[in-house]
């Protein structure tokens, strides 16, 4: 039986050195890519926040226009439409008249021009419409190089009065 001599080098010593070198290389690769992955995660989270805010602005404009389109009385209540739109944006600061702007207008059926709602002239089929515009500004958590730190968001909805 042949035994190992204690002073003789192990045949696996070179493999152990290679394994340790590979572990070190993996650790170095992780250290280099981890900050990049963290920045990508932060950018993705900010994008998700911006998308959520954009949906809230669109929903606010839609809520204000829907409230105003109920009848001609609510269509004439511009402040009411703006307040309903602001009330819809509960998670974000909103001021009626500043962040939400409402208006109403009339058209003669079959025409694209606007006419007076109170004195339509020769028009016999007057159609009333309301428009609500909601706007706010999204700000990122961090300033990213190459990306804007704030983005204006706006949505406008027009509905025919019932």
General description of the model:
This protein has helices at 13-68, 72-76, 78-88; strands at residues 100-108, 114-115, 126-139, 150-160. By secondary structure, it is an alpha+beta fold. A hairpin with a 5-residue loop joins strand 1 (100-108) and strand 2 (114-115). The chain is 44% helix and 22% strand. It has one domain (13-160).
Protein traits:
162 residues, 4-stranded antiparallel beta sheet, 3 helices
Chart the SSEs and their pairings:
Blueprint: H1 13-68, H2 72-76, H3 78-88, E1 100-108, E2 114-115, E3 126-139, E4 150-160
Antiparallel strand pairs: 1-2, 1-3, 3-4
Helix pairs in contact: 1-3
Strand order of the largest sheet: 2-1-3-4
Count of the domains: 1
Tally of contiguous helical segments: 3
- Beta-strand segment tally: 4
Short summary:
With 162 residues, this protein is an alpha+beta fold. The protein has three helices and four strands, in the order αααββββ. A hairpin with a 5-residue loop joins strand 1 and strand 2.
């Amino acid at each position: 039986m042949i035994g190992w001599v204690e002073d003789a080098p192990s045949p696996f010593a070179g493999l152990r050195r290679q394994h340790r070198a590979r572990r070190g290389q993996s650790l170095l690769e992780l250290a280099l890519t981890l900050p990049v992955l963290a920045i990508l995660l932060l950018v993705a989270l900010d994008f998700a926040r911006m998308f959520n805010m954009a949906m809230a602005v669109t929903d606010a404009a839609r809520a204000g226009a829907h409230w105003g389109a109920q009848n001609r009385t609510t269509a004439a209540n511009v402040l009411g439409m703006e307040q309903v739109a602001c009330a819809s944006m509960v998670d974000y600061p909103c001021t009626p008249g500043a962040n939400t702007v409402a208006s109403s207008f009339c058209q003669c059926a079959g025409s694209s021009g606007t006419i007076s709602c109170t004195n339509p002239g020769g028009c016999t089929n007057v159609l009333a419409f309301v428009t609500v515009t909601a706007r706010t500004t999204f700000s990122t958590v961090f300033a990213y190089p190459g990306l804007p730190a704030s983005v204006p968001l706006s949505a406008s909805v027009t509905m025919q009065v019932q």
